[in-house]
Structure formats: structure tokens, C-alpha cells
Amino acid sequence: MAQDTAALTEEVPVATDGVQSNYSEHSIKVLEGLEAVRKRPAMYIGDVGERGLHHLINEVVDNSIDEALAGYARTIVVTLHSDGSCSVHDDGRGIPVGPHPVKQISTLEVVMCTLHAGGKFEKNAYKVSGGLHGVGVSCVNALSAHMCVEVLRDGKMYRQEYARGNPLTPVQEIGETTATGTRVRFLPDPEIFKTIEFKSDRVADRLRELAFLNPRIEIRLHDERDGRDDVYHYPGGLVDFVAYEDEGKSPIIEPIVISSVFKAEDGAETPIDICFQYCKDSYNETILSYVNNINTVEGGTHVSGFRAALTRTLNAYAAKNNLVKPDKLQLTGEDFREGLTAIISVKVSEPQFEGQTKTKLGNGEVEGAVRAVVNDYLSAYLEANPSAAKRIIEKAILAAEARIAVRKAREIVRRKNALETNSLPGKLADCSMTTPEDCEIFIVEGDSAGGSAKQGRDRRFQAILPLRGKVLNVQKARLSKVLENEEIRCIFMALGVGFGEDVDIAKLRYGKIILMADADVDGSHIRTLLLTLFFNYMHPLIEAGKIYIAQPPLYKLKKGKKEYYAYNDAERDEVLARLRKESGGAIEIINSEDSAQTASGVVISRFKGLGEMNPEQLWETTMNPETRTLLQVSIENAAAASKLFETLMGDHVEPRREFIERNAQYVRNLDI
After folding, report:
1. Domain 42-232, architecture per CATH
2. Does residue 134 surpass a pLDDT of 50?
3. What would the DSSP string read from start to end of 169-205?
4. Separation CA 636–CA 205 (nearest Å)
5. What amino acid positions are annotated as catalytic residues?
6. What are the tens digits of pLDDT across the range 426-441?
7. Per-residue pLDDT averaged across 498-515, rounded?
8. What's the pTM value of the predicted model, to 2 decimals?
9. What sign results for the dihedral spanned by CA atoms 639, 644, 646, 647?
10. Which member of 241, 345, 573, 642 lies 3.0 to 4.6 Å from 290 by CB, making a disulfide possible if both were Cys?
11. Helix (H) or strand (E) holding 397
12. What is the DSSP letter of 160?
């Protein structure tokens, strides 16, 4: 095996004309081992924020899942320790510890300290494997302040410890055992990550997803910080997954399960597992797709194969049984997918991913495999279950009638110029620049806040679209109803990208879409309604990272002529503590700007809404690119996102009540 190295150009002096000076052989630095990972961590894990931090857990868990896919591991335990570290323990075969035939050191050390070293490049150890970046646990080692690995195999226990990717000790035999497996414990390096605090809910979403996809595995999550102790084990597999996604809905059929291994002419095998059902009280399509346990949020050939087979097979059955008169109504794929919830999981030995995020499957042979399997199984199912088939076709007919109504509504709307890109809503205060990447639009709650935003903005690149009241909850409405809503039509018109399957992100008029609402409960509700709109009808904008949430302050603190802004209770308390320290003792708290100020007094004002801020304050705290804070909206786990939107915005109250009770933060009094 060749020595693993990476060449990067070291920083050298730059001349005044921009040309590098003293550029010679000594300017080239070769980074040995895992140095390259620490030098450019975002190249390997995406970023060094919360997403990258949790990706470390995913990389380690993926190794355990691969052992399970190979048929050796049945239990995986993930523990979030009170000291900030995380451990992952499985009962697989254990990483080999003997001397590596090329490196002449322990194979365990090779795996932990060398990029692209593992048993997944040749298929004698693993037929399929997960993971997107191919860097695995060695990358985790490089980005951890400390890591300890314990291996149980061949009747013995072994251990090796590392610091920032470098072994601290040789592999040591520490005892005997009859068990097998691997335990990896790592502490993320605070020199690398902006935060090193793991979020248990985020970890739980991924572990639950893996448990659904691998029904033979039991996955446990234990959080020492709050005592959380969850067990994820779903013997029903994808059936349980669909039931989880459709909790609170009313299915019209029992879940349809397809499980097969497609064998190509060259002998290659592609395991295909699909489960789907329809719900009468759902008008949206939910398709969650996976390749080797990787969530392919952008879909790919396995999804297109499923959709094509679904449309063709159902149309053929409807025509054969005279359930639809083709001269009066033509059913489309869109009609057959209304109210559909489907989970697609395929195992591909050599997956080829496309797209910027590498989460779109590009293997052309997989499309044909899925299409053939679905067509054969679904045809047989429809013939054997005529009553269920009839209910599916009837729902599709209702969807088609609604689609026709939507088309008529579109035509009416277009006649009114409501969706024409050359006609903008009258309430929009547009910016003067015309290059989309340089422009941003604030979608603002309320006319008063919109007025302050219009006066406080930089007119060159900032546009303001004020909304009146709360927009329609699109989770509960068909598209025809959505298009009747004036505020939603204004949003469609201002952005210019279209909606639904017609979204064309190339036509987007702004590089950033910023949702700006009050920092209170009503503001949160409005943001949720808007995010529901984008999630259901302009999903590509979220995937492209175009949606942001503004962070207006909740408090203003004033001491003398100095003003401070706090975005939550914790920041308010932090400012007060700092002012106490600067004053050398107690300070007087004044809870109204109308009260008489004293030399040591601090006036605390709580903003009730954006409209209470004058234009200068709104610019300084929320709109100025130099001083503001924006939250970028992303979708890393489509299953969790879909479930959350249905819970919060769907028709059923009980799941929403349970979510609120589980996540509510109770208000405490200001402790002065």
C-alpha cells in the first residue's frame, strides 16, 4: 500500500502586485498521515459547525452498521458521556489487530491513522457499505482531542489511545473475553469545532432511521447528561417506518411491501426493499430514499424507477378494469403520488453519487432494476387485492380532478398577472441591483415591521416583502386552495421560481431569502407556516441553502449612553453580569425606559415585535450584514423533517400536544 500523503501549498509571502514571492521547492509542504484532515477539516466532514460535529458520530456508527449488513453485528450502543465525549460499541467481529502485511504495524493502527484504509475497497469483507466520503473513523480520530479504541476478538481484549490522530501507545492486550466487537470513544477537538456539544435529538433521528432500515439490529442511545435511555428496534422494518411517518393519518390501504433481489445479466445483485401506502387525509407526496443506508435527499435513479413503475402499472390496471374513461380523464404520475408515503431502500455494491451534496444516486442500472421489480410485484398485488386497487385509483381520480381545478386556478391567476415574473406585487419594495447573487429579500411579518424594514434597509441590494397576517397552513390544503391565498401568491410572484414540480431555481431573483418575524411565539408560528410553504412547494430552495431566518433581538439594555442587545435570556443575563463586574458591584435594574435613570441603573426593554424597533435599530441588529446573525435552513434528515412538519402542521392534535409537552421550555422569572 502506498504511503498516504496529501500535498497542499503552504502560505508564502505575497508581493504587492499579487504574485507570490519566494515561490520555490521549499514552498510545497507534504502533509503526512492525518495532517491534511486537520488542515482542511471542512473538505472531509462538510463543515466544523454542528453538522460536522455530528457527522463524526455518523462515521463511527456507519462502521458498526456495515458489520450488521455483513451479518455479524446485532447490537449497537451509542453513549453521550457527561465529559462531552461519545462512544459507539458494537458486537461485530472487531477490527483486526495483527500486523498489516504492508505497513508492518498493527492493522488497528493502520485503520485508525490512515485515510482510505479499510475493508470496503475490496468486496471480500463487505459486499456493500455506507458512508459518503470514504474517510471513516480515521477522520474522526484526526479531529478528536482524544480517542480510545477497544477491540474484542480471538478471545482477547485490545486497546489503543490517540491524541489528534497520533497514537499515544502501541496496541496493547489488556485481558481475555469471550465476546467480540469494537468500542470507539472520542472527544471532539475544541481547536477544530465551533461547538463540541452533541444534541441527543439529532443523534436519535439518525439512529432511529438506521433501526428502521435494518430491522435485525437493536440500537441503543444513552445520554449520561440527562439520563435519556432509548432503544430503537423495529422488527417490521420499512412497515414500521411508514407507520411512523404516517402516525395520526388515515390510511386507505395496508402498507404494500416489496422485497426482492434483482439479478442482472452479469450476475450483479441489487437488493431492493420498498414499502408504501396512501392516506386519505394527505395531499402531499413523501418519498424517502436510501442507498446503503445513506439518505439520498435528492433522489436519483432508484426514485425515478419507482415513480415510473408506479405510474405505468396503476394506469395499466385502471384501463384494463375500466376504472377510468381515458377520453374524459387522463391520470398522471402526480395524481398517483398524492397522499403517498414511500420508503425506498436499495443496496448497491458500487454506488455513484451525483449532485453537490453527493446525495443523488446516478447508477443507471438501478433505475431499470427498481422499475422491473416494482412493476412485477405491484401488478400481482393489484390483481390479488381488487378492493385496495380500487381505493388507490379512486384517490388518484380525486387528485386528477383537483389538478384540473388547480390548472384552471393557475390560468385565472396568470390572467391577473399574479404569477408572471415580469409583474411584481405592489407591496414589494424591490432593490436596485439586478444580479440575484448580490441581492436578498426579507419576508417580513406585519405592515409596521415592513415599514421599519423598508426605511432601515440598504436599498441597493435588500428587498422587503411585508405580509399581512399569518399565511395559509399549506400542510392541510390542496394546491388549488393555496393559490387562492393572496400572501402566498405574492411570495411566488416575488421570488419568480414557480412552485411544486415546476420550480426552476435558475429563475430565483434573490441570492438569499430571509424570513424575519418577531422573536416571540406568534413570530415562531409565522416562521413555521412559511417554512411549511417552502418545504412543500419550493423544496429545492431549501436544498440549495437559499432560505435563512433572521435573528432579531429580544431585549435592549441601556446603561447611560451605551446600548446592548440580547437575543435570548442567557445573553441578557450575560450582559447584566458583565455590567455588574464593570460597575464593581450591584446595579439597579430599571424595567421601563420611561423611568428616571440613575448613574448605575440599567434599563431593560423587551421588544414585543419588530414594529417597535426604529429603522436604525432594525438595521443595526437584524439587517446589517456586518453585525447581524442569520440561521441557514437546511434539511439533513428528510425523514425527520417530514415527520416534524406533519406533527406541527397536520390535522391531528394529539401528536402535536405530545411534541409540545416533550419540548416545551418553561419561562422562569428574571433573577436580578
Report:
1. 2-Layer Sandwich (3.30)
2. no
3. S--EEEEE-S--EEEEEEEE-TTT-S-----HHHHHH
4. 10
5. 445, 518, 520, 522
6. 889 999 998 999 999 9
7. 90
8. 0.69
9. positive
10. 345
11. helix 386-415
12. E
